[in-house]
User: What shape does this take?
Amino acid sequence: MFVANGRGRALMFFYFAGPLGSGFGYMFGSYANSLLNGWQWALRLTPVFGTICVVLVILIIREPERGEAETATGATAANRIEATSYWSDIVALLQTRTYVSATIAFTAVIFSMMSLSWWGPMSVCLAFAMNNKLNSTDDINKQTQAQINFLFGLITMIGGLTGVITGSLWAQMWSSGKCCFRWVRTKRSNAIVCASGSFMGTFFLFFGLQFMERNMSVAWVFKLFTLLLFSSFRTSYLERTVR
Assistant: This one.
């Protein structure tokens, strides 16, 4: 459907769904819990939106032929694309060391982010209970819990969206040698952005957890940068692997 840099921009917009959906889910779930007096209502109502999206995909989205976008731009290589078996495609991918290594790294980052999405609000509640001399997180009133989930969802949206945009633009500018990357242009920009984003995000995550007991505002800032850096990794990874 897209070629060259257009494919990278399309993937950038596609990856907006991750932080937007996660952040909106936290905010919607917290208020559904407080308004309807039950966390189960968040799971009962959200499938309605999913059903609408599935129906729209079936009715509106058209599946393009492989190489159609390249053929439309005059690429001769697209005309030589031949269908291969599923097994031969798997073997070819497994023989590509860059793809295998990047997939393992991507799995590790997603594992960390999904763990953070579950334990992030819980760790904030634990720190809040500890700082307020409460015996358990069950003693935190529902309004405070809703505020914590709302703030975590908002930070997820802001950090994720900012990371997706900056990671994609950073990699594209670096590979094309624009602005401050004029003298350090490299085709390995996506790989470098992936590595640096995940590496720095680990430190921000560690210090964010350490500051929870001392200063929650600083901890929120560290969480914001953690999600920003991990999101930049995800975008650059996809741009690299689809080319």
In short: The first helix runs from residue 4 to 14.
